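Standup notes, structure subgroup. Blocker cleared on the BIS(adenosine)-5'-pentaphosphate input:
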Amino acid sequence: MAPSNQNTPIILVLIGPPGSGKGTQAERLSRSLAIPAISTGAMLRAEMAANTELGKMAAAISFMGGLVGDDIVNQMIASRIARPDCAPGFMLDGYPRTVAQAQYLDDMLKARDLPQPLVMHIDVPDDSVLERICLRRQCPSCGHIYNLKFQAPANDGLCDADDCKLVTRPDDCEETVRERLKAYNKLTAPLLDYYAGERYSRVDGTLPPAQIEAELLTILEPRLVRAEAT
Ligand code: AP5
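Run returned:
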C-alpha cells in the first residue's frame, strides 16, 4: 500500500507503552506505506551518540526513565517534518507523549494546512513489556530491532541485514523500564482520552508483529481511500 495521494499526506501517530512494539511497527509500516518513520527516541539517541549538549541532557533524563522537555521535542519534530521526504506523509513513533505535545502537534499541522493525525494505539499490558525490553537488541547501524526470544537474529549477536554487532540500549535495564512505565501511565496514557473519537484506533499489541501490521493496514485502508476521495 503506497501513499494514497501526493496532495493528501498520511499522518500517523503510534502510541503505546515502552516496549509495545512502536519501533517494530514503524519500521514495517514505513516500508508498506512508503512514508518516513520519525522516532523522537532515535533522534535523541543520535544526539547522545554525537555527545552534544542536548544528547548529554537527554541521556541523563532517559536513564532515569523521565521525559525530555516538551519545547525541545516539539522543535525537533517541527524541523524534521518540514523536510521534503515528509511531503507524502510521515509516521510519528514516541511523539506526542504528553497532552501539551499533542496540542502543539495539532496546532502545527493546522498552521501548515496538514490533516490531523490518525492515531494507532498499540495496547500491551505493563507486565509483558519488561521481558520484551530486557531481551531487546538493536543494530546501531541500520536500527533494526531484535528480541532474543521473539525476533532473534539468524546469527547470534549480529544484525541479519549488515552483520553489525547488536547493542543493548542503556535505558533498557529493569529499574529504568519501571520508571519509563510510570512516566507513560502518568503523562502519556491521558493522550488516549485526548485522541478519543474517529481518529483513534486500538490494536492488540500482544499479537505477533506481522499480524499487528496486517491489522493496522486494515484499519488504515478505508481511511486512506477516503482521504484520496477528498
Ligand atoms: P523511545 O525510544 O521512544 O522509547 P519508548 O517509548 O520507551 O519505546 P521503546 O523504544 O522502548 O519501545 P517500542 O514501543 O518502540 O518497542 P520495540 O518495537 O522496540 O524513547 C526513549 C526515551 O527518549 C524516553 O524514555 C524519553 O526519555 C525520551 N523521549 C523520546 N520521545 C520523547 C518525547 N516525545 N517527549 C519526551 N521525551 C521523549 O519493541 C520492544 C521489544 O519487543 C523488541 O525486542 C521487539 O523485538 C519486541 N517486540 C516488538 N513487537 C513484538 C510483538 N508483537 N511480540 C513480541 N515481541 C515484540
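Discussed briefly. Residues 209-229 form the longest helix (21 residues).
Next: hand off to the docking folks.
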